[in-house]
């Protein structure tokens, strides 16, 4: 129970810090973070010897780091982009949908941007095509630790991905400076982040040492 209460306190602290950023700060940092991610994706193309990549990303809501500048670059480059939509029948799950532009996005549950309801679901067999996942969260540490919002959506997705895919994609996160903390309390079901995308730079975590 101690780790759970520690997480609850940390979530509140990190929420306050992120909300304290001005709209101008969020806009500038988001643009710089997207630039860092675009640079990483170009290196990933070379590493994998692929002209295009498949990205699975969250769609930013309220004061989260904005992913949209990166998505526009991906669409222009011909990359495939997947985004999640919460399953209305099963609140603990989301499905993946392909989005090819902002015309494929609409307000979903709680006003959170989601793929339109009439788009085709990406089958689980196609999950192994994903090269990079961008996971939302409230805080991160340099060991790849992450604390989310408490819903467990991405924990369940990553667990399922490990069971169904022959290889795992790179797992990344968009991070404002205020979201880095010394150590995130981790539980057995929590997964770690491979690379942190920050303002104008990205850092590979020490996850592999754990």
TrEMBL record:
The lineage of its organism: Bacteria, Bacillati, Bacillota, Bacilli, Bacillales. It comes from Paenibacillus nuruki. Substrate binds at residues 59, 64. This is 5-formyltetrahydrofolate cyclo-ligase. GO terms for molecular function: 5-formyltetrahydrofolate cyclo-ligase activity; ATP binding; metal ion binding. Belongs to the 5-formyltetrahydrofolate cyclo-ligase family. Its EC number is 6.3.3.2. ATP binds at residues 7-11, 146-154. NCBIfam families: MTHFS_bact. Keywords: ATP-binding, Ligase, Magnesium, Metal-binding, Nucleotide-binding. It comes from the Bacteria. Its cofactor is Mg(2+). GO terms for biological process: folic acid-containing compound biosynthetic process; tetrahydrofolate interconversion. InterPro entries: FTHF_cligase (IPR002698), FTHF_cligase-like_sf (IPR024185), NagB/RpiA_transferase-like (IPR037171). It catalyses: (6S)-5-formyl-5,6,7,8-tetrahydrofolate + ATP = (6R)-5,10-methenyltetrahydrofolate + ADP + phosphate.
């Amino acid at each position: 129970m101690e780790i759970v209460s520690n997480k609850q306190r940390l979530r509140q602290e990190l929420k306050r810090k992120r909300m304290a950023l001005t709209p101008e700060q969020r806009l500038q940092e988001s643009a710089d973070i997207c630039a860092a991610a675009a640079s990483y994706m170009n290196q990933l193309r070379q590493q994998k010897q692929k002209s295009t990549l498949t990205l699975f990303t969250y769609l930013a809501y309220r004061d989260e780091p904005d992913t949209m500048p990166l998505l526009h670059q991906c669409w222009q480059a011909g990359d495939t982009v997947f985004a999640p939509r919460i399953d209305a029948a099963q609140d603990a799950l989301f499905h993946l949908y392909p989005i090819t532009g902002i015309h494929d996005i609409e307000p979903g549950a709680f006003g959170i941007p989601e793929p339109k309801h009439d788009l085709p679901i990406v089958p689980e067999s196609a999950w192994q095509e994903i090269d990079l996942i961008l996971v939302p969260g409230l805080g991160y540490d340099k060991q790849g630790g992450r604390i989310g919002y408490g819903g467990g959506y991405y924990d369940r997705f990553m667990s399922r991905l490990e069971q169904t895919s022959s290889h795992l994609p790179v797992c990344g996160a968009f991070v404002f400076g205020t979201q880095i903390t010394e150590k995130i309390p981790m539980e057995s079901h929590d997964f770690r982040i491979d690379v942190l995308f920050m303002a104008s730079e990205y850092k590979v975590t020490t996850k592999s040492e754990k």
